[in-house]
Design brief:
Four copies of one chain form a homotetramer. Chain A contains three helices and six strands, in the order ααβαβββββ. By secondary structure, the first copy, chain A, is α+β, with helices and mostly antiparallel strands. Chain A has a four-stranded antiparallel beta sheet. In chain A, strands 1-3 form a two-stranded antiparallel sheet. In chain A, strand 4 and strand 5 form a beta hairpin. The radius of gyration of chain A is 17 Å and the shape is elongated. Chains in contact: A-B, A-C, A-D, B-C, B-D, C-D. Chains A and C meet through helix 2, strand 5 and strand 6 of A and helix 1, strand 5 and strand 6 of C.
């Protein structure tokens, strides 16, 4: 079975939940580094297009059930007084919710800027096991 | 004037045309490296969303008059027989037309995969000087 | 404790092993998208410098115990007959071994191009629990 | 001549200086987007390795005579009190000097964070025509 070739590479002791957590991390790490450095400005059409474009890309990856990107509009540079007044996507404005489904396990994970840590934290909010 | 601060950094001997060519190169170099590695698959909605998202981003940059991305659908992996059958954007599928306007000069530039060079060539097709 | 703030965001039911798997995925996803699109050519000094540079970057991330990047020299374009004969890093040449340590768990993970899948597979080779 | 195929794509009216300016822009745009988002911390060995790695990569591109990256150490996060105290490369710390040689023209160009513009300005400092 082609679809099982990948399993021969994984540690035999790895549980389905652990594999699902691993796949979730891969997608968030990828999402973050694809978004970083993309030019943006405080214009709803532009922000929305970028969100939809990168959501479409991430949705192609294995085991992605859903992905919703919600860039923090409050923190995107506002005035366009000169040609140079535009902004770039960094961890401070990236917020996303990802659902990964691997076999019977669904993981709900997020990335959000945590002010107390001054850090774009990626975390697993929920693990759901379907019978 | 804030909008002229940038000029004090440039060589005094640089013509408007030369500056326009420089700005054009910056945008194509950025466009290329933003696109590279983005996941994609042979699905018109997905391809279209990615194109629109990155066009929106590039249009924020200084002096960009228009940007049209046209990924080469013929070269994007087609079948979705397993979770791993998706593709990634590389220079082989990137095609775009950019128009930069700097003062009185407009530059029409392109990026396209040139089979004879096996290379994603970025080139200036036209320089238009408005009176 | 600042170092525990992050835990309040994670699902209470997540095991240490699962968290370690998640963190491992994040680093591999990041590594892959940082590498993709970087120019390279078949010159040992250049390849080595790029490997060391990106290893240094990844080693800054939380819970990374070690990272070794080993780009596949056999697949990097060889001849420099024209200015355009250079290559770019893609999944076909990326090979790396990462060790993540999260509390009492160490994960050995790899990324490698799997010819049968035509895919740059990221996988967990070993999970080691220290007493 | 393979090395002249590229010229047939360019506007016939483009001068050697203009082409050189265009090529310079491409490299700076690429450099910037390759660097953005790379993890870093205030450790001289790590900073130096990243600089050398990306210099090696950029030096592969056509017409690059030299490239020197000098990340602004003053602005990189210093304390490593928790796992999350590391930084990421953004436009605020990127400084580089690039020399492009296209036929008889050499361009000296820079990227630097300009505080008055709050912008990572890419500019051409000097154009040198060799007889």
């Amino acid at each position: 079975m082609t679809e099982n070739i990948d399993k021969i590479f994984f540690s035999a002791g790895l549980s389905i939940r652990e594999r699902a957590c691993f796949e979730t991390g891969i997608k968030l790490g990828a999402l973050y580094h694809i978004l970083c450095g993309i030019p943006i400005q405080s214009d709803e059409n532009i922000i929305h297009s970028i969100e939809k474009g990168i959501e479409a890309a991430i949705s192609c990856q294995p085991f992605v059930k859903s992905i919703k990107i919600d860039l923090d509009r409050e923190k995107i540079l506002r005035n366009k007084s000169t040609e140079f007044d535009y902004d770039e996507i960094t961890g401070k404005i990236i917020r996303a919710e990802l659902i990964v489904k691997y076999e019977s396990v669904e993981i709900v994970a997020k990335i959000d800027w945590i002010e107390d840590l001054e850090y774009p934290l990626m975390y697993i909010e929920k693990v759901i096991e379907k019978p």
